[in-house]
Amino acid sequence: MQLTNRKKVIEQKPMTFAERIYFPAIVKGLRITLRHFFKKIPTIKYPEEIRPYSKNFRGQHSLKRDEEGRERCTACGLCALSCPAEAITMTAAERKKGEEHLYREEKYASVYEINMLRCIFCGLCEEACPKEAIYLDGPHVTADYLRKDFIYGKDKLVEPTFDITKLKS
């Protein structure tokens, strides 16, 4: 019993000899292969080639030093307040006599930690810092197995001291 009277008639044409030996399909496949053979390869062979980063790339945080090699961070806490993921924690301390060559201001961050598992790399900490002490200009955050290894302290964040006198000698 049919619901409608429309009937679709399928006509099967006999295959030609070329169609029976799949010649048109083989030619079509070879044409596609040759077209892709001369295209530029979009894949980058990663360890040997490194893709250039864009200008807007935000990598690992780095705490900057001033021209004299002192830490710029004054532990004002604006970076921690502006962080929407609450990834930054710090403890402020007073500078003691004899530490003027280490810290620029009287107050400094004795403990400065960033939880990289919470950080969303929004860059608000960078914008909030009045002393231009924090930048997101480092490399990618590398993979690791333990969660505790993603809490970066000052040992990983503060940029190393640069002594120009060593270069001259």
Notes on the protein architecture:
- This protein has helices spanning 17-20, 23-37, 78-82, 124-128, 154-157, 164-168; strands spanning 62-63, 88-94, 107-115, 134-135, 151-152.
- It is of the alpha+beta class and 169 residues long.
- The termini are far apart.
- Keywords: 4Fe-4S, Cell membrane, Iron, Iron-sulfur, Membrane, Metal-binding, NAD, Quinone, Repeat, Translocase, Ubiquinone.
- Residues 64-93, 110-139 form the 4Fe-4S ferredoxin-type domain.
- Its cofactor is [4Fe-4S] cluster.
- [4Fe-4S] cluster 2 binds at residues 83, 119, 122, 125.
Mean pLDDT: 89
Estimated helix fraction: 10-25%
For the biggest β-sheet, the strand order reads: 2-3-5
Largest sheet: 3 strands, antiparallel
